[in-house]
Amino acid sequence: VQLQASGGGPVQPGGSLRLSCAASGSRFSGTTMGWYRQALGKQRDLVAIISSGGITKYADYAKGRFTISRDNAKKTVDLQMNSLETEDTAVYYCWESGFGSWGQGTQVTVSS
After folding, report:
1. What separation in angstroms does the CA of 78 have from each of 22, 33, 57, 66, 91?
2. Residue 23: which region, alpha, beta or left (left: phi > 0; alpha: psi -120 to 50)?
3. pLDDT band at 102 (very low <50, low <70, confident <90, very high)
4. What is the mean pLDDT of the chain?
5. DSSP string across the chain
6. 18-71 tens-digit pLDDT
7. What distances in angstroms separate CA 71 from CA 27, 37, 80, one per listed residue?
8. Which backbone phi and psi does 46 adopt, to 5 degrees?
């Protein structure tokens, strides 16, 4: 499985970004997908995951601000991020549970 993440970039505090991850392979619909992030000098942490059936789980800091969604027909998983804060600055990685594959990461920089 290959994952291609996109949608990162610079944004001002309070702004929004939508990350998207496109997956190859035939097992997408049966796998749990997720987004993780890694800030400079810190470990990679869970942001949100979504099961094959659409059940979601969020990190506490993401609840109410971020929304994860998936489109099994398009084999994509998106992360809508609103009310962004400087602390959200990180490289965001797409992940899939079938093979434990990671995307290449996309940089999100929240700064005024």
Report:
1. 9, 10, 14, 10, 15
2. beta
3. very high
4. 95
5. --EEEE--EEE-TT--EEEEEEE-SS-GGGS-EEEEEE-TTS-EEEEEEE-TT--EEE-GGGTTTEEEEEETTTTEEEEEE-S--GGG-EEEEEEETTTTEE---EEEEE--
6. 999 999 876 787 899 999 999 999 999 999 999 999 999 999 999 999 999 999
7. 13, 21, 14
8. -65, 135
Tokens representing residue 29 in the block: 């619909």
| Residue 23 bridge partners (DSSP) | 3
State residue 29's pLDDT score.
77
Q: 38: closest CA among 104, 111, 112?
A: 104
Written as one letter, the residue type at 61 is: Y
Contact (Cβ atoms closer than 8 angstroms) between residue 102 and residue 93: yes
- What pLDDT sits at residue 30? 83
